[in-house]
Structures are given as C-alpha cells and as structure tokens.
Design brief:
CATH topology of the largest domain: Serine Threonine Protein Phosphatase 5, Tetratricopeptide repeat
Number of helices: 15
CATH class of the largest domain: Mainly Alpha
Length: 247
C-alpha cells in the first residue's frame, strides 16, 4: 500500500466525530502522513509506519535492530502522536504483529497516549478488535481505567461504536469496585448514554438494573432512547425500553 506524501487535513476533526463511519476513520488515520508532526521529523519512522499498517513483523523487527533510536518500539510515528502499536491495533488481521509488540513493550509503554489522550486500548475498543484488547489488558489492567481527553474509558468508546463483543469483554474484566467507579456517577451515566447511542439497549438495561441510580441520570435512559429515532423502526415489536416509553 503506497502512502501519499501529504497530510490528510481531515484527520483531527474526523477523530473527534463519533458519527464518522469506522471504515472512513480508519482510512483517514492510517493515511496520516504528517511527517513534521508536533515539530518532529517523522520520516525516519516511515518504514515502521508502513510495517505496522501491513502487519509486517519481519520488516519491523529488522527496523528495530538497525534503528538509530533505541526506543523506536515506543516512538510516536504519526502526526497524531501514535506508536506502531496504536497503528496496528486497528485491524484484527495484524494481531500477530500486535502480540510481538506487546511482548517487547513495558506496561508503561502500553499506556502511552496520542493527541486525543487515547491509549492503544481505546483504539482497539473503537475498532472492535477484542483479541488485541485482551493482549493489552492481560499485560496492563490499568488501561481499563484510563480516560482520554473526552473523559471516555475504552469501554465508553466501544459502547458508542456499538461493538457488542468488545463491550461484553470489557465489562467482564472491568472491576466495579475500582477507585475510578466506572459504572457509577458521571462515568456510569455516560456509559448508559453510549450504549444507547451504539444500539446496545439490552446491555444498557442490564447496567441500569445493577445500578438503579443511573436511571435518573441526565439525560435519563428513556430520554436518550426517545431522541434516537432508529430505536423505533416502523412496525417493529416494542422492546422493554420502548414499552416503558410508550406506557
């Protein structure tokens, strides 16, 4: 895949837009070739960037062995300040590459963030790459509780994207009694909202059943569903939430 020698100006605005189709978002981010990102010349890392996109571990390993930067494995290689790991986790076809990187990186390396405060786990969550998420969490469980610049945990990101398998996995491994209180207060209300945004109504309902105070969040679950027209397809049988709303 040949990478154009220019910057895609859409990149920063697109990454903030939760409604942007995921396939377009991935394309924009992977073709981000701002070789002067944050005042840093990124051209020496272009071979590594290409290897990460292609899942080419042989090329990446060779690059690490001869790279003048001894910390190249955790270097930021895109204009959005992303590492090779952050680039690779976007597709499950590269998980062999992801595993090799995770094995060689420290727990702190896995917690590195891009310009939007997102770790590799946030990015894997957005892409629905559950296998990559498992590799990351098994090495550093703290990643589950790190918020990005928009106060979203990886779980929030997966919920907003409607990534059911990812949400189920992250909810299973996220501790309710953690100091971050991911399922309570502002974080819990946001999670219910994201689940509804992603069309995961059954998971939202189960969460509210376990944490009843979330039913009184702002907006409330019913208000959030009422604002989502796709929750009421014409002629469809009403689900639990919809029955409550109509009643």
């Amino acid at each position: 895949m040949k990478i154009p020698q220019r910057t895609y100006k859409m990149r920063r605005s697109c990454d903030r837009d939760p409604e942007l189709p995921l396939n377009i978002l991935i394309l924009v981010l992977e073709l981000d070739t701002d070789l002067e990102g944050a005042g840093k010349d990124l051209s020496p890392y272009l071979p590594l960037h290409k290897a990460a996109i292609n899942g080419d571990w042989k090329t990446a390993e060779s690059y690490f062995q001869r790279a003048p930067d001894p910390d190249a494995i955790k270097a930021t290689i895109t204009g959005a300040s992303e590492t090779a790991l952050a680039v690779a986790v976007r597709s499950p076809t590269r998980n062999h590459f992801v595993k090799k990187l995770v094995d060689k990186m420290s727990e702190n390396d896995l917690a590195m963030v891009n310009d939007y405060g997102s770790t590799a786990l946030h990015i894997a969550a957005s892409s629905g790459n559950t296998e990559a998420a498992k590799l990351l969490v098994e090495k550093n469980t703290c990643l589950l509780y790190l918020q990005n610049k928009y106060k979203n945990l990886p779980l929030h990101v997966a919920a907003a994207r409607g990534k059911r398998d990812m949400v189920v996995y992250l909810m299973k491994v996220t501790r309710e009694d953690d100091d971050a209180k991911p399922f309570e207060g502002e974080s819990g209300v946001r999670l219910v909202q994201k689940l509804i945004d992603g069309g995961l109504y059954d998971i939202a309902l189960n969460l509210v059943k376990r944490h009843s105070k979330l039913a009184f969040g702002n907006p409330s679950p019913l208000e959030a569903i009422a604002q989502k027209q796709s929750a009421f397809p014409s002629g469809a049988r009403l689900n639990y939430w919809q029955c409550l709303l109509y009643w």
